[in-house]
């Protein structure tokens, strides 16, 4: 079945559906049981929040959503690690990389002030802006996805005020290029030369261009910090590859393309600049630990 991305015709934000069969009939969320509708190739077009996982954190305009799998269907207890290869989780990662909109619906069973009193309420379109793998409360790996609500949609009804996360307050695309004072300082230290390939981009006016790349991403759920020991001066190509897990950095600062993992460069450092090893480890775990 080919996925439909966006709000189906005839459906509006805030609409309440009696049950999962009703939600399916409207074209909002086809599966009757699974929380995620997705595949690795097409991406995920819809999720339902139903309160199945302790790590979920619903703040209205942004949601930390636990991926699928590893749960015993009868006891609801987790008994194994979640995997980035299961269709729903892989689908949400594809949607993150491609910037595809995901329909979000909340069941009355979701433990959140944004849940409806009964039935399932359609909350509109969100973008997957991040994901990470953590050890959950029951000792197994879980995948936490961050979804941010797309702007310029009808407000949803709720009993609570949405929380604004300042790092993401102006999010409109899935990949953010943040230029803080610290990023500018690191970029000028390298005179805009990429620490991986040594290339500098120069515009027609002679302006040198590079990007400040946070190795451990800022904001929830990653909580990386905006300090020099978490920043690299990179060209846009290598910044993009870093952000989508297309390259990995070893503890010795060797840089490899994934999935072959054959090193092709070493990070170049100048003067006072160091990269905290725990940040490159975090980046590797973010993209590769669930495999
Ligand atoms: Zn480069």
Can you offer a commentary on this structure?
It is built from 5 helices and 15 strands. Helices cover 16% and strands 26% of the residues. The site of zinc ion has 8 residues, from α4.
Output the helix-strand order.
EHEEEEHEEEHEEEEHEEEH
Rg of Cα set:
20 Å
Low-confidence segments: 170-177
Helicity, in percent?
Answer: 10-25%
Terminal CA distance reads 27 Å
Bound molecules: zinc ion
Strand content: 25-35%
Biggest sheet architecture: 8 strands, mixed
Shape: elongated
Return the structural class: alpha+beta
Structure annotation, total helices:
5
Total number of beta strands: 15
How would you state the average pLDDT, rounded?
Answer: 88
Produce a short descriptive summary.
The strands form four sheets. Strands 1, 2, 3, 4, 5, 6, 7 and 8 form an eight-stranded mixed β-sheet that branches. The chain has a three-stranded antiparallel β-sheet with strand order 13-14-15. It is of the alpha+beta class and about 290 residues long.
Task: Give keywords.
291 residues; eight-stranded mixed beta sheet; binds zinc ion; three-stranded antiparallel beta sheet; elongated; alpha+beta
